[in-house]
Amino acid sequence: MTDAQPESLHCACRPGDESLLLGELGRVYPHSVHKTIWSGWTESRLEPDDREGGRCLALAQQALPDAAVIRAPSIARLALAAAPRIVAALEDHDGPWRLHAFCVDQPGADARQVRCDRIAAQVLDFLGKKQRRLLRTRIDDPAALWSPEEALVQIALIEPDRLLLCVVPAVAAHPLRRSLSRWPGGQAPIDEDKTPPSRAYRKLLEAELHLGLAIGRGDRVVDLGAAPGGWSYVALERGAVVTAVDRSPLRDDLMRHPSLDFRKGDGFKYEPEYPPVDWLLCDVIAYPVRTVELVSRWIGRGLCRSFVVSVKFQGEDEYPRLEELKQILADANLEFQIRRLRHNRNEVTALGAPAGRPTGAT
223 φ, ψ to 5°? Predict the structure, then answer.
């Protein structure tokens, strides 16, 4: 496995985000051709000038490099066509691997998850008869972090009779590793909880799952723009010590919490007295340029170790700011991702940790 870029790339995205993703693809791969092939799906043919260096795609929920297109009229024939290719692709792979079978779920779509699951079941049945060693090394837990030599097999159903088959032999070494999710289709599961003061808590939980790293007991956390307290609530429940900064107070019970230090003021001006803190959290409604400057300052001055920061947009013309943020994080030698989470609206979430710290990205 080399660090060369793939020759083709399919991306799954949130339905309605196709034009935004095409814009990002055009900025990341400026010499290549990109198009929408189906609702929630784009396809790129990558030119040689674009095949170098690491890449991060914020608006792709999942990336499928060098995927093969398979057409067949039934579940059985789709599985029968895919399974031997998986065996061949993993013939020399002795390490662990995982199988994702998914579709872009949307109302009225012909491709449904139940069909994906049946295809996957028949593929595994084929492997049980022809290649039992692959069943022994398969990782069945999507929450398990990537291991250094792990392979990822993806079966993505586009239409009932058309799927994409993608095999990445070594995820950790792949130039698109920041855009490869260990959750099928990039959909990390979140349990609903009515206790937090806002539904924004879901974004933080989802970000932690993608990062593979969670706020822990005793962690020092700064939550900028904290009111009404959804993210602070999560950190306090974990046993963290939280400094919450906002012009408005948090919910009354959080304001009385012994591990909360509330600072009334502008979160963009706050800096911790004793850096670095373990976590920077920020879900402030602000122009992207201000949020990017905030991240650059906190990372550049070593004010935090790990971070989860929302970058919010008002229009499509603001999305190119993401390229500046990607460069800042790449230059800082961080393990990072920038993702359009399931619970994001017109925003993305940047998440990261120091290089070498175990996360879902490595």
Answer: -115, 105
Burial 87-98 (b: 16+ CB within 10 A, else e): eebbeebeebbb
- Which of 130, 194, 203, 312 is an active site residue? 312
User: Mind listing the pLDDT tens digit for each residue in 126-167?
Assistant: 999 999 999 999 999 988 999 999 999 999 999 999 999 999
Shared-domain flag, residues 115 and 35:
yes
Q: Is the pTM of this model over 0.70?
A: yes
Residue 203 annotated as catalytic? no
Task: Determine, yes or no, domain membership for 359.
Answer: no
Residue 258 placed within a domain: yes
Predicted pLDDT of residue 357: 61
pLDDT for residue 248 is more than 90? yes
1 belongs to a structural domain: no
Each residue's pLDDT tens digit, 256-274: 999 999 999 999 999 999 9
Query: Is the domain of 286 the same as that of 330?
Result: yes
- Split into its structural domains, the chain has a count of 2
